Amino acid sequence: MSLMQLTYIFHSGFVFETDQCILVFDYWMDPAGVLPRYLESSKPMYVFASHFHEDHFTPEILTWRERKDNIRYLLSKDILRHRRARKEDADAWLGKGATWEDALVRVTATGSNDSGVSWVVETGGMRLFHAGDLNNWHWMDESPEAEWKHDEAFFLRELEDIAIYTDRMDVVLFPVDPRLGREYMRGPVQFVKRIKTAIFVPMHFDEAYDKAAAFAPIAREYGAVMPEIRSRGQKISLEFNKK
Fold first, then answer.
1. pLDDT digit string, tens, across residues 90-149
2. Whole-Å CA distances, 108 to 49, 111, 191, 201, 239
3. Which segments within the chain are labelled E, that is strand?
4. Residue 66 pLDDT greater than 80, yes or no
């Protein structure tokens, strides 16, 4: 078994720390002030942003290189296309299907049915998935049936493309967003049914902690452990079988 630490920043923002490196995903804001200690760490840091939306990317992250030398930026191409950053700001600009790797991590940009990409990151014998804005954004309570079914089909196609790459994940960070209404868990259910998931971590739920936590028993039905998130800055210890 290997033990690693996940820290919830806010919204879809997380820090994942292994014994060798630090991964930061979709930083937007840091209400609990967790980032400074990671920036002071001697471990290499890899910073990911899945797309250009302001709740998933802020130019603030680019200032971190002034405080930390061993930092790499792996950003979605749409951030560059929308002129939210300059070409020289990233170590790699990735679109769906692109890969990047060094001695510590291997990164694959998988698809999204919204903007940008989702991420598969392999490091230390572990495979981590951050969905970005990949989800079944069906808005069933307020959209015509033909419209939400069309949107759902798009999501399911992207899910099948991910399954071609891998049908197993050690850790999955995925939206569980109550704004979608009565079937807000539909996308997460479809994901864990298709992709064997060991640890499922909800995100993109704002302050609706109870609504996010309600997915835990469903995750268990499909063999996934789901830690409860109850506060910004919460640290979660994760165990997985090292491959």
1. 999 999 999 999 999 999 999 999 999 999 999 999 999 999 999 999 876 777 777 778
2. 13, 10, 18, 20, 23
3. 2-10, 13-17, 22-25, 45-49, 71-76, 92-94, 99-101, 105-110, 118-123, 126-130, 168-175, 196-203, 235-240
4. yes
